[in-house]
Amino acid sequence: MWRLKTNQALGSLVATFLLSLAWAAPCREQPYTLETPEGLAGGGNLEFDGEVALFTDGACLEARGLTLRAPSLRYDQASGELTAREVEVETPRYRFWAEEAWVKGQTLRASGVRATTCRCGEDLRLLSQSLVLNTQTGEAVLEESWLEVYRFGLARFEELTFSPGQSLGEVLGLTEAGEALPAPLRFDFDQGLNFGLSEFPLAGPQRFSTRLTLLGLRLGSPDPVLRLGLSARERQRRASLQLDAKPSGFASSGEVVDGPLFFVHDSAAGRYAFGLRQGYSWADLAFSPFGWVAQDWRDGTPATQVQGLAAGAELRYALSLQEGPFRLRMEPFGVFALYDQAPGYLAYGGQVEGRYEGAFNLHLGYSWGTESGLGRFWLERREATHRLFGGLELPGLELRAEHDFLKSQTQGSLRLGYRQDYGEFWLRYSFCADCVGKTTSNGRSDWERRELVLGFTPSPLTCTYDLSLSPLLGYDFLRQGVSRFGLELRYADCCFVWRLGYQEVRIAQHPDEIPSGKFTFGLEIR
Q1: Is the pTM of this model over 0.85?
Q2: Average pLDDT over residues 326-341
Q3: For residues 425 and 419, what is the distance between their CA atoms, to the nearest angstrom?
Q4: Is residue 260 part of a domain?
Q5: 471 closest CA partner among 492, 498, 502, 450
Q6: Which residues pair with 132 in a beta bridge?
Q7: Of 133, 150, 166, at which residue does a domain stop?
Q8: Is 249 exposed, middle or buried (0-12, 13-18, 19+ CB in 10 A)?
Q9: Which of 3-17, 67-81, 333-347 has the highest mean pLDDT?
């Protein structure tokens, strides 16, 4: 994001300041210019006072994609120190202002810093007392920063660390792997009104991530929920607690993890455990001994409650071979556990998968798992499975399929897409034959499905004051009716991308779907 270097030449006086900018009036068009090892310095006026050089009247510097503007730039060649006031810099992601800056050696320090990602205006901005920047690595630290949205102070941070190419969403913990996380402000309607803060990042040192949840769920329905949650993470430590208040009573869940030690509980499932799990690895072999005291409801009801001690280990071996575009991966595993009040438990199995990645992508795999004895707690249980799966990817085509031998069911999907500059038209056909579920009056399982969904996904918004529409429509061929429909509107202003959508499920396609309408609202930092 900010990439700067230091040099004893005049060009270092600002090349060390901030980064990548393409300004409207290039320095090469200034009346006075000077070639330096760092780039081209220029201005409407140039004066020398001994070893001090002063550019004024539109002073600027162009160096490797960087252009900086200031009323004046002062460089003392004897001390190697740069001073500048009222500096303005624009990058592909940010616009910056600083009241005063000093550069010496490999460190830049600035005071009175203001930064924004907005294309115009400053409805979202960071105010900072000081900036410290390493001119060799490009990393910068804002100290004592204050985040403002529409001039409303939202959070204070002791320090924020920026790396080259990082977006503000990544710095604040609102983006992972380049993908925007769900908006921390939740406002939607799904079986009732859902409103409040969800995983909202609280102010604090950037190395320690703390998030707050305060939500009202299904408000207006017969079963409303008030949810309060708090989570924190630092390296190998993390902790979370969630409390749900319902008309039927209270429920809680959470975990505390400190290296190999952990405590986890879920009152709704009747589960808790306190213990340790330590992982060791040698090349492709992983060995994880464990031990805990736990309670579990095997079928989700208090009638099947079990308590006691468990100790054991899990062994996995990951073998991977590659030859050109072909890859083969095998991962057998074994788990055993001993109990204080029951016979032991053994589970073993593995997965083998072959892949070809070239002009097209093809993968085929098989996973299996067998249990011997009864696993008392959910932590060590490994579900028995025998499943064959595969997939094929071509430009504009994705095919997925799998067959579960234990359940004797086959399911999969086929997706076709037609991409243009403005977006992609697509269709997805999903099927599930002999799926497990209740038997309906026509003799079919209620989770069998033959659904076709048509939709359009617009390209990401790049212009300010631009909008896009994303519709979808689904049809159930078994039940012969519209299964779902929806529409999402996206609007980009100077600072945010606003999302407003509605989706209705009319014919549920799998157990976690409920026929109902859902209204959603969200926003993303541009």
Answers
A1: no
A2: 95
A3: 6
A4: no
A5: 502
A6: 109, 141
A7: 166
A8: exposed
A9: 333-347
Pseudo-torsion of CA 478, 479, 481, 484, nearest 10°? Answer: -80
Q: Are strands 285-297 and 397-404 parallel, antiparallel or unpaired?
A: unpaired
Number of domains in the chain: 3
Say yes or no to pLDDT of 441 above 90: no
Supply angle C-alpha 288, 236, 203, rounded to 5: 155
Looking at residue 42, its amino acid is: G
d(CA 241, CA 233): 12
**Mean pLDDT taken over the chain:** 83
Lookup result for tokens 């945010």: 496
Report whether pLDDT(72) > 80: yes
pLDDT at 105: 66
Q: Is the dihedral of CA 48, 54, 58, 59 positive or negative?
A: positive
Short-list 65, 63, 64, 83, CA closest to 73: 83
318 contacts 306 by C-beta, under 8 angstroms:
no
Q: Are strands 285-297 and 39-43 parallel, antiparallel or unpaired?
A: unpaired
Q: Which of 381, 409, 427 is the last residue of a domain?
A: 381
Nearest to 227 by CA among 248, 211, 241, 213: 213
DSSP 8-state symbol, 208:
S
Domain that holds residue 525: 395-526
CB–CB of 61/77 below 8 Å?
A: no
Q: What's the CA gap between 145 and 162, in Å, rounded?
A: 13
- Distance separating alpha carbons of residues 115 and 56, to the nearest angstrom: 24
Q: Is 109:123 a contact under the CB 8 Å cutoff?
A: no
